[in-house]
Write a structure and sequence with these properties.
163 residues, single chain, five-stranded parallel beta sheet, cytoplasm, Rossmann fold, EC 2.7.7.3, nucleotidyltransferase, coenzyme a biosynthesis, alpha/beta, 19% strand, ATP binding
Length: 163
């Protein structure tokens, strides 16, 4: 039986911090489903399909990574793909309290699915999709924050929105 994990997030857009967590998870698990959250309460810059396309492009060198989306309970999705684990990245202590609440609730919903926290590489500890979008919006240099494909997509998005 394959050792399957789910790595959820909004990925709006995917950053090098996300890529660090995905790559490290893919080195541990046989199969990793990178799952784009479809959160209607958040105003996303990229559509779910655009985020999935970008993720597919930047993970194409990782054969054991699959990209998908969901809009329901994460543990239900994990169960549907036979995942035994959820991978979550932690940037700082401030992330831990929120992540612990989510993990505790997931454990109540399905105690068979474990959550694994991976500490983000120190060089990405400050990085968030929100910061990247803010810098990109004002045409700042984001080349060391996101994959090249994402940098191009952000440039295109903010150039086309300048009307």
């Amino acid at each position: 039986m394959a050792n399957i994990a789910v790595c959820p997030g909004s990925f709006d857009p995917v950053t090098l911090g996300h890529m660090d967590i995905i790559r490290r998870g893919a080195n541990v698990f046989d199969e990793v489903f990178v799952v784009v959250l479809n959160n209607s309460s958040k105003k996303a810059l990229f559509s779910v399909e655009e985020r999935m396309d970008l993720l597919r492009e930047v993970t194409k060198d990782m054969p054991n990574v699959k990209v998908d989306s969901f809009g329901g309970l994460l543990v239900e999705y994990a169960e549907s793909v036979n995942a035994k684990a959820i991978i979550r990245g932690l940037r700082a202590v401030s992330d831990f309290e929120y992540e612990m609440q989510i993990t505790s609730m997931n454990r109540v919903l399905n105690e068979k699915i474990e959550t694994f926290f991976i500490m983000t590489n120190n060089q990405y500890s400050f990085l968030s999709s929100s910061i990247v979008k803010e810098v990109a919006k004002y045409h700042g240099n984001i080349s060391e924050l996101v994959p090249k494909e994402v940098e191009r997509a952000l440039l295109k998005k903010f150039t086309s929105n300048k009307a």
